[in-house]
Amino acid sequence: MSARILDGRVIGKAIRNRTRLEVDDLVRITGVVPGLAVILIGDDPASRIYVANKIRACTDVGIRSSMIEYPKDVPADTLIDAIERLNDDPATHGILVQLPLPPHHDVRAVLHAISVEKDVDGFHLYNVGGLVVGDTIFSPCTPFGVMNILDHARIPIEGRNVTIVGASNIVGKPMALMMMRRDATVAVCHAKTRDLAQYTILADILVVAAGVPNLILPQMVRTGAVVIDVGINRLPDGRLVGDVDFEGVSRKASCITPVPGGVGPMTVTMLLVNTMSAARRFVERTRGPILTPVHPQDITQLA
Ligand code: GUN
Question: CA 26 to CA 79: how far, in whole Å?
Answer without folding.
Answer: 31
